[in-house]
Design a protein that fits this description.
Keywords: Ribonucleoprotein, Ribosomal protein, RNA-binding, rRNA-binding. By secondary structure, this protein is of the alpha+beta class. It has helices at 3-18, 34-46, 56-63, 90-101, 119-125, 131-159, 163-184, and strands at 23-28, 50-54, 79-84, 106-112, 115-117.
Amino acid sequence: MAKVELKQPIVQAIVDDITGAESVVLVDYRGLTVAQDTELRKQLREAGIIYKVCKNTMMKRAFEGTEFAALEEHLEGPSAIAISKDDATAPARILCKFAKDAKALELKGGVVEGTVYDVAGLTELAKIPSREELLSRLLGSMQSPITNFARVIKQIAEQGGEAAPAEESAEAAAEEAPAAEAAETPAE
């Protein structure tokens, strides 16, 4: 078998992984201990991120003609690829967080939703909370006024007798106002 025939399935596997991907991030993993690498892979797997160590030439061939072709300039030295099809910021968030503790892990660059980012850009993207966290914050802010309204209604109901006289005095004032207007009208 020719070398090209042996390499084609590997390239095709990478193409299959990046097809429909929201984001792809490249990292240099040199210097990670086995324990650190195992922990990183576990965290990425739990987040639904594909993480592979691939040859740069294989990734270059897989990236050709895709939005990830701009990553070609970052393919020097040993490279690992993190691919997410669901949460666009998850690879950057997890890898940046892990790189704080494991200084050997270096981000190289990435493409998130069609935009190419360098290390500084990926670091900024990592600060964006996950989709679930953003949705829970939105839900909390939507429920807050309803909760406050319910508390006010409950307090009024607990006071019971105090709210009723205020309503009665408002009704009495409304009844007296037309009578006062009728008395002023003949005087004109």
